[in-house]
Amino acid sequence: MVSRIAALLLSGVALLQVQAQTVPVTDLVGTWSSKSNSTLTGDGFYDPVNEKLIEPKHTGISYSFTADGFYESAYYRAIANPQKPRCPKGIMQWQHGSFEKLANGSLVLKPIKDDGRQLYSDPCQYKSSVYTRYNATEKFKQYQVSVDRYHKIQRLDLYQADGAPLMPMYLAYSPPKMLPTTTLHSLVTATPAAGKVKRGFAPQEVLFKRTDGNVRADQWWWFGVLMTAGGGVMYWFF
């Protein structure tokens, strides 16, 4: 009787270990982009040398995956305000790191915490766009790769943890178009020397706001967000 219970316990432990194991991924490999095919991962979206997020022509999302477990994501969202047309909001987010596919088919994306970046614009709330670190682990309940019936190209559907789908994405590049998968920015904790800018900020903390000398650039950023928000809606309906 004791040996039978022990055997059952051992089989239960083995089952849990199998469920926790990661599964090799091949069908995800490549760079995927939403319908506009304007937002893409890589150096065309984020410039780590000059600390700059580059605004695409259209809103959208993009994910890239490698066969050895690395990923990169790029988001550009513009939110129009019908009640206050002069107050559109814009958000750009970029992350990269490693990912796992679990035995139950779910995906877990773990970003390099010091590398993620976000640019947030709300002209009626802030005088300047706010540039911060960004760090958010993503979990997808499941995904599906298929050939789109209309476009006749490979399509990726990601389903969030609650089962809600993201907008479909289509294969844009294979092999994927990505920045280096290693850490791009090391968090500085030492006291900076005189005359140098301190770079040691915690995740989500403001890295910098656009200076007074860049007010005109900010105005063009907000104008671009407004036009993109309107153009994005027109794009999907026409």
From TrEMBL:
Question: Which InterPro entries is this protein grouped with?
Answer: Rot1 (IPR019623)
Q: What is its main location?
A: endoplasmic reticulum
Gene Ontology biological-process entries: 'de novo' protein folding
Q: Which GO terms describe its cellular component?
A: endoplasmic reticulum membrane
In what way does this protein cross or attach to the membrane?
A: Single-pass type I membrane protein
Renumbered to this chain, the signal peptide range is: 1-20
Pfam (any one): Rot1
Which residue spans traverse the membrane?
A: 220-237
Report keywords, A-Z. Endoplasmic reticulum, Membrane, Signal, Transmembrane, Transmembrane helix
Any idea which GO molecular function terms this record carries?
unfolded protein binding
Q: What does this protein do?
A: Required for normal levels of the cell wall 1,6-beta-glucan. Involved in a protein folding machinery chaperoning proteins acting in various physiological processes including cell wall synthesis and lysis of autophagic bodies.
Do you know which PANTHER family this protein is assigned to?
PROTEIN ROT1
Q: Which family does it belong to?
A: Belongs to the ROT1 family.
**Protein name per its UniProtKB record:** Protein ROT1
